[in-house]
Amino acid sequence: MEIMRVLRVVSTFAVAVLLAAMAASPAAASASAFAEPGAVLNLSWSAPAASNQVFTTTLTCHPTGGGEEWYMDAEAACGDLTTAGGNFESLPGRLLNCEGVQGWAIRTTASGHWFGQAVSYDESHANWCEARKKLGWVFIF
Question: Do 15 and 53 have their domain in common?
Answer without folding.
Answer: no
